Amino acid sequence: MENTTDKSSLHPGHSGLGNKEFETCLIGACLKDETNIPLILGILEERDFSSPKYRIIFKAIQTLFNRNGPVDLISLNNELRTKGILPSELVEIEESFFDGYDLNYYIALHK
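and the corresponding structure tokens:
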């Protein structure tokens, strides 16, 4: 499926998404189910996140995904080991996304 989203509407002035719950949900969706990653990477960029911590995590997810390796708590923790992000923080983020969320709905809010 081709992504025709205009990314310029997502980051006017590069201010980020600006909603911690939404950003947590997106990162959690990537950690909970790797099939969410291409959808999210196709729409958002690192600079779209307002939280510096989530920018770092998003970039690490993108790096792992582009290496064709697993994107899970263990590999992400190894990637972030020197960035000051604790494994417990990743678990908390992953648990913030549950299968009841309609990820497409939340992404559509930012198209």
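(Above: one complete record from the training split.) Helices lie at 20-32, 37-41, 52-66, 73-80, 87-96, 103-108.
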